[in-house]
Amino acid sequence: MIHADVRRDALERWLAPHLRGVRFTLASASEDASFRRYWRATLDDGTTFVAMDAPPDKEDCRPFVRVARMLTTAGVHAPQVIAQDLEQGFLLLSDLGTRTYLAELNAANAAPLFADATDALLRWQLATRAGELPPYDEALLRREMNLFPDWYVGKHLKKPLSVPQREALDGLFALLVRSALAQPVVYVHRDYMPRNLMVCEPNPGVLDFQDAVLGPITYDIVSLTRDAFVSWDEERVLDWSARYWEKAKRAGLPVAADFGEFWRAFEWMGLQRHLKVLGIFARIYYRDGKPKYLADTPRFIEYARAVARRYRELAPLARLLDELA
Fold it and tell me: Which residues does 102 contact at the CB level (< 8 Å), separation at least 6?
């Protein structure tokens, strides 16, 4: 942890002149699944800011700065970048508060909060321009899904796949890639979920957007409604998805004209994400020593199993999950 102390000391020295020499205290603002750390800087008068520490040998602050500006331009509430030092990997940001959607959501407020999140997502998607973000292409889609056999199955379950199992999984990956690439493309946040949305004014505040890409239109709405850390009954997911689809159509976004077609693309896109996240959560534990994410892997197995059982083409995955159980 010596390295961490050195980084914090350097961050404090860097912050001092940007905070006009006013005395401040630093406290951990949130944990991150990456190497980034966030600190809340509180001034003597109670004013707060957020400081990001992103070790430049492991993280690149430039996408964060760029996408923050794009979100703001699109009318989405994102942190303002007040000061930056890309060489050291430090950013000073406006503070969107401490009230995450994940902590605040309940049965009574879910509908209005999700309506706000849907409206913000539509503004982000409507701002789409070609060439502004890297593509969510076949190579990236496959690289993400391969985290499932490599880290979740091989490393976590310790059950190397047989040749027939690997062939079945490769066939499934091909189907999911084809479905994803057939969708219209828009700006994709890529982690648009309650943990990264803040209850604030205007609502919501949006965080953790540095991995944004140009990709499938269903990706962010399925991330929002089939979340890593909280589950909703299928009736609610269907309702929120239909409301998004109706608003998107009215706004002129290129969603499928038929809701059944949209829903199938939504489910298959979600399955790609679920397999990826299973691999990521295992990798975070075994590579990075962060064990808490593994507790949520059963949620993703259930998401994946439910979708695989609903579609004849995905039956090989349902069988594989049963074999691995």
Answer: 193, 194, 195, 227, 229, 230
